[in-house]
Amino acid sequence: MNKRKGLRVFAPASVANVAVGYDVLGFALDKPGDELVVREGSKPGLVIKSIHGNSGLSKEIHKNTAGYAAFRLMESLGYEKEAVEIELYKKMGIGTGLGSSAASAVAGVFAVNEFFGRPYSKDQLLRFATDAEQIADGSWHADNVAPSLLGSIILIRDNASMDYVKLPVPDGLRVVILYPKISVLTKKSRAILKQEISLDLHIKQGANLGAFVAALYKSDLALMSRSLTDHIIEPQRAGLIPHFAALKALAMESHALACSISGAGPSIFALTDNTVKADNILNVWTRFMSDKAMDFDVFISKINTEGAKVF
Ligand code: HSE
To answer: Band of the pLDDT at 43, cuts 50, 70, 90?
Structure first.
């Protein structure tokens, strides 16, 4: 690699929680995703030279998830005085529910690791990216950064020790995403959640999470569909998302396997087993939203099994 010219990476958006795994489940999307260029800088240290596509983000290393994740990696190698500059190309807004801050964190740490000749494995980068994600919403959870970095559907058994399992992705799955263009800040969406749940809810949700994982290993889409009901978080957050109940009903009537909130919202996702059903859901959601006084975006993606990559 020519260090002056540098390299460009892509880190995908992700859907966290996946209905039954609050803070412990997430999958990566094919699109959108953040892009980041890293090259040799003109003075010692890490510099965010520019941010394209989202002028609201700070260029201060310690206030930017891309910068902070990259900085933590450089620090761990004793390279914090190396001249490195990065340019971040934001392809999604903040507060979308699609893991925007996580994608930036992953792009930053993945790019700088490649720039230095890949001293760490992807696995080892997870901690730096999660460190950075914490500055965005104040809590330590890898359910967006892990799928963005590693691809696929990830179950995090324990966030503290970063003990995770990369789960199999059944063939043919399609995700339909609807992003109503309002911003829901994760911090706020977390703050409204009750800190305690009943034993009854724990039993229901635990059984559903276990059955969902079994469904992935068995490629049993009927079991997946029966499993993906969120008894705990969705009922508490649904009110933050305009028309959530109606949109979910439309998706389920159109034979979605499941429909729930993407991460902390406001985006919602529907899972289907083929492109025809995905197109139908996209069309009914588009028709429903077009007479509402709200801008929105709707698109179809596969589950991305590759995660962050150089391109
Ligand atoms: N698990 C997180 C949440 C994802 O739902 O708050 C958003 O960062």
So the answer is: very high
